[in-house]
Each structure stands twice: as structure tokens, then as C-alpha cells.
Write a structure and sequence with these properties.
This protein is an alpha+beta fold. The protein is built from 4 helices and 11 strands. Helices cover 25% and strands 43% of the residues.
């Protein structure tokens, strides 16, 4: 993995700080959490913001609406939801944002993703919603697969670089373990 220079890290911190001018109250809490490491909001406050955003989204219903599914079509197998902070690439392979180890040693990031898998008698449907916690960036993705086309489900652990701001305005690049789930069809790999 490529290391970024101190200048690039400082530019990233500056860009996130500049978002404060257009951020809403919740986004400002998130920005301050990452840019004011020692004196900013505590882990509990950050977690409250994330929990509030997640509950207001109701991504399960968003997924059903976007895919065009009815609950009656999904009685075969209970749906599955994966969710969590993203500490890896998002914008054309370029790492964005920051991750931070909280006082409880849990990693938190400014990017979050929620993925739902639904199972009908003949198909698997996937809906993924990714969003920034400190800006209005959002990304939705849907896929559907016939069972006969799926060759493999796979899980993996990997280590990616995360950017952890420190108390004196610097940024430390630290390795963070992430988990991946993949649904594999011939010629295509889909990570969630």
C-alpha cells in the first residue's frame, strides 16, 4: 500500500476542516471528532450521531423500494444486513477521510456502508448504501443474481491504511483490519 506524504495528509485534514462552512450540526460533530482529536467530541457523542443517522435512513425499506420487492416475495430465507465503518478506498481508488481509534479502541471512520441481501425463491438481491458522515456524499448500488449463476460466497480479512489524526494537528497512517464479504458469479466479483 502506498504511503502518503505528510503534506498530503495535512491537505486532507484541511479539506475536511473546510467542510465545516457547509456542514449541518451532526456533520460538524463528526468533523470535530476527527480534527480535534484530544479536545473534540467523545466517542459516545460520535456514536450517537451515527446511530441517529442510521435509524433515520431506514435502509431496509429504501432497499425494498429501490429493487421493487414486496415482503411476500422474501419469505424463503431471512434477509441479511452487513454494516459498518469504511476505512478503505471509495473515490476512484483514492483513500478519503479519516479513521480514528476511540478511547475504547474501536475504529471509527467518516464513511459508513450498509448492505442488505434479500432472498427470493429464485434470486439473490443486493442493495448497498454508502454515505459520508461529514458531507452529503451518498452512493447507492443494487444487483440481482439468479442462484444458478452464483459460484461462490467468500469472506476475507485484510489490512488497509487508515489516517488517524493526533492531538498536535498531525496525521498518523496506521493499519486497520477490515472484513469483506464477496458474492462471486462468473466474470464478476462483488464486494460488500
Amino acid at each position: 500500500m502506498a504511503q502518503t506524504s505528510t503534506t498530503e495528509q495535512q491537505q486532507r485534514l484541511s479539506q475536511i476542516n473546510s467542510l465545516k462552512t457547509v456542514a449541518n450540526a451532526e456533520q460538524k460533530i463528526v468533523i470535530n471528532y476527527f480534527t480535534q482529536s484530544c479536545f473534540g467530541p467523545k466517542d459516545e457523542k460520535f456514536d450517537q450521531v451515527v446511530s441517529s443517522l442510521r435509524s433515520r435512513l431506514n435502509t431496509r425499506q429504501m432497499a425494498l423500494n429501490k429493487i421493487g420487492l414486496d415482503e411476500d416475495q422474501l419469505k424463503e430465507i431471512p434477509d441479511i444486513c452487513f454494516e459498518g465503518f469504511q476505512t478503505d478506498t471509495w473515490n476512484n481508488g483514492k483513500i478519503e477521510g479519516f479513521s480514528k481509534a476511540g478511547a475504547d479502541t474501536r475504529w471509527r471512520s467518516g464513511k459508513y456502508a450498509i448492505t442488505h441481501l434479500f432472498f427470493s425463491p429464485t434470486q439473490v438481491y443486493m442493495y448497498k448504501y454508502e454515505f459520508s458522515l461529514y458531507s452529503n456524499d451518498r452512493k447507492e448500488r443494487t444487483e440481482e443474481y439468479f442462484y444458478r449463476d452464483i459460484t461462490n460466497f467468500s469472506t476475507s480479512d485484510e489490512t488497509v491504511n487508515a489516517y488517524n489524526p493526533n492531538c498536535i494537528g498531525g496525521v498518523k497512517v496506521v493499519p486497520v483490519s477490515t472484513q469483506r464479504f464477496e458474492l462471486i458469479v462468473p466474470g464478476d466479483r462483488n464486494e460488500y
